[in-house]
Amino acid sequence: MSAGVIGRPRRRRETFPPCPPPGAAPRLGPVKIYTRTGDDGSTGLLGEGRVLKCTPRVEAYGSVDELNAALGVARALDTQGWLAEQLAALQARLFDLGAELSASGPKVLKKLNRIADQDVETLERWIDRLEDELPPLQSFVLPSGTVLAAQLHFARTVCRRAERRLVELARDETIEPRLVRYLNRLGDLLFMMARGANQRAGVAETEWHGSRG
User: Fold this and answer.
1) In the chain, which stretches have pLDDT less than 70?
2) CA 53, CA 27: separation in Å to the nearest integer?
3) DSSP letter string over the chain?
4) Residue-wise pLDDT tens digits, 80-115
5) What is the predicted pLDDT for the residue at 22?
C-alpha cells in the first residue's frame, strides 16, 4: 500500500518508546533433547496433560513459534541494528504468548508472565511513531524491497496465520481476547517496519496496480 518512490533514509536514528520489562524467566534444569514421548503423535502441555499434535491449541502456539523464528531471521538481517531492541522484545513476548497458549490450567497461568493490555498499547505507540516517519499510503504495495523488508513482510503473513489460529481456537476454548489483539497489532507493526526498512535503505516500494493481461 504505499506511494511512489520512497525518499532517502533520514540521518537521525529512530527511537521507540521502551517495551515494558518482562518478568523473570523460568530457568530450566538439565533437558534431554529427545524423549520419545511424542512418537505417538502427542505432545505435553505446560503443566499436566497431553494432546495430539494436530489439535487447534498446538496449531496456535506452533504458529506463534514459527512467527518467533521468522523474527529471528529478521534480526539476523538487520545488520544496522535499527530494529534490534524492538525485535528482541517482540521475540520475548511471543515466547510468553506461546507459553500462555500451552498452559494446561489456571494454576500454571498464575506463574506465567502473561500478555497484558499494556503490551498492545506499546505496539500501537511503535506503529504511530513509524507512521509519522513514512509517506502516507496511497495504494497497495507488494511485499518486496530489501531482504530485511521482504523478511518482515513474510513475518507479517506468519503473524496473520497465527492470529487466525487463535481465532479458530477461541471458538471452542476460552482464550484471552487480548492475545488476538496483540497479534492483530503486531501484524500491523511488521508491515510498518517493512516499509521503514525500505525507506531507510532508499529502496522504492513496488505499488500494486492490478493484474495486467
Assistant:
1) 1-29, 212-213
2) 25
3) ---SSPPPPPSSPP--PPPPPP-PPPPP----S--STTTTSEEE-BSS-EEETTSHHHHHHHHHHHHHHHHHHHHHH-TT-TTHHHHHHHHHHHHHHHHHHHB-SHHHHTTS----HHHHHHHHHHHHHHHHHSPPP-S-B-S-SSHHHHHHHHHHHHHHHHHHHHHHHHTTS---HHHHHHHHHHHHHHHHHHHHHHHHHT----B------
4) 999 999 999 999 999 999 999 988 788 888 888 899
5) 47
Nearest CA-CA partner of 121 in 52, 199, 181, 201 = 181
Whole-number pLDDT of residue 118: 97
Cα angle: 124, vertex 63, 22; to 5 degrees: 50
**pLDDT for 7:** 37
Domains of the chain: 52-201 (1.20.1200.10)
